[in-house]
Amino acid sequence: MKNLFIPYKQASELKELGFDEPCIGYYTKTTEKLCRVGSSKYNVDFETVTLKDIYHDYCLAPTFSQVLEWFRSKHDLHTYIKKDKWNHWQNTYILINKEWEKIDSYESYEQAELSCIKELIGLIKK
Known about the structure:
About 30% of the residues lie in helices and about 20% in strands. By secondary structure, it is of the alpha+beta class. The strands form 2 sheets. A 3-stranded antiparallel β-sheet has the order 2-1-3, with helices on one face.
């Protein structure tokens, strides 16, 4: 399940960019360890945290889908990933100024998704 969350490095960069959406996990700064928000085994609802709920040097641990949704809703930046005829994640694109820009090709969907997030972070930092 750990692979559903973006890595610490990108989570830290997102914090700098203002990402503060409710998350079910967070990272500690000293160990970069992924921690989940406490919940009761009898409680079906997930507990979440935002930046105000955790130590100032920690960062939220969003899922890949949360981050991509945040880029779409807050920055109008979209991604598109599809397989080529050889079953590689060949076509990975970001929509910038109404133009699809190709990033690269990858062996797995997860690599393509992480690359998109890194690219989007770089665009916002500019």
